[in-house]
Amino acid sequence: MDGSSTTNTFLSTHEEFALIQTFLKYASQVGFFMNISRFLSAVSNGESSAGGIGDALVQAVYLWGSHLSVSDVSRARAPSFLSRSLQEVSKSVPSIVTETSDYRVVQTIQAEVLLSNYFFTTGRFLEGRYHSLAAVALVTGSRLHQLGSNMDPIMETTGNMESVTFGENVCAFWTVYTLDNCWL
C-alpha cells in the first residue's frame, strides 16, 4: 500500500498474513466472492493502484480475520479494524463516482458485503442492513444486475473483458442479491 493508505503499522507482515489466512478459511461463509488468487496476488504485491486492493477491503478482511482468530491478541484488535474499515469504506464510496476502475467498484461492494455480514453476525442488524443496502446501491448503480443484457451496463461485458473480472462481477451481483434477500 502507498503512503496515503491506512496501513497497519502495528501489524507485522506475519500478523497480516495470519489474519488473511484465518479469513480465507471462512471466506465463502462470510460473503467473499472475489477471485482468491487475484486477491492474494494483489495483497502480497502491496498494490494500491487501480488494479490493486483498496484499504476498505483490506481492513474488512483483517476485521474478519481477527474476529475468527483463536488468538486473544488478534481478537482484541477487531474494534480497531472495524473502525478503520468503516472509515475507509466511507471514503471509497464517494470516489467511485469518478473511478474508472471496475475492480475498485467491485472491491468496495466486497467491503460492504463483509461489513454487512459482520454486523449481522454480531447482532448489529441495523448497521448490517445499512451496509447491505449500500452494496445493493453499488451493484445497481454499476448495473451489475444487467450483465449480459443489451442494456449497455457501465461494467463492460464485451469479449475483451477477462473472464476472472466477469466472474467477479457476476458473483458480486448474486452475493448482494442473496444478502439483501436473506437478512430481511
Cα-to-Cα separation, first versus last residue: 36 Å
Q: Estimate the global geometry from the Cα principal axes.
A: globular
Beta strand count = 0
Percentage of residues assigned to helices: 55-70%
Rg (C-alpha, Å): 16 Å
Counting structural domains, the number is 1
Number of helices, counting only DSSP H or I runs of 4 residues or more: 8
Low-confidence stretches: 1-7, 151-161
DSSP strand (E) fraction? under 5%
Q: State the secondary-structure class.
A: mainly alpha
Largest sheet: none
Taking all residues together, what is the mean pLDDT?
A: 83
Query: Which H/E pattern describes the elements?
Result: HHHHHHHH
Protein name: Transcription factor domain-containing protein
Summarize the helices and strands and which ones pair or pack.
Elements lengths: L12 H14 L9 H9 L10 H14 L3 H5 L1 H18 L6 H20 L3 H17 L21 H20 L2
Structure notes:
Helix 1 (about 15-25) crosses helix 3 (about 55-70), helix 3 runs antiparallel to helix 5 and helix 3 (about 55-70) packs parallel to helix 6 (about 100-120). The longest helix is centred in the middle third of the chain and has 20 residues, at about 100-120. With about 180 residues, this protein is mainly alpha-helical. The chain is built from 8 helices and no strands. The protein has helices at about 15-25, 35-45, 55-70, 70-75, 80-95, 100-120, 125-140, 165-180.
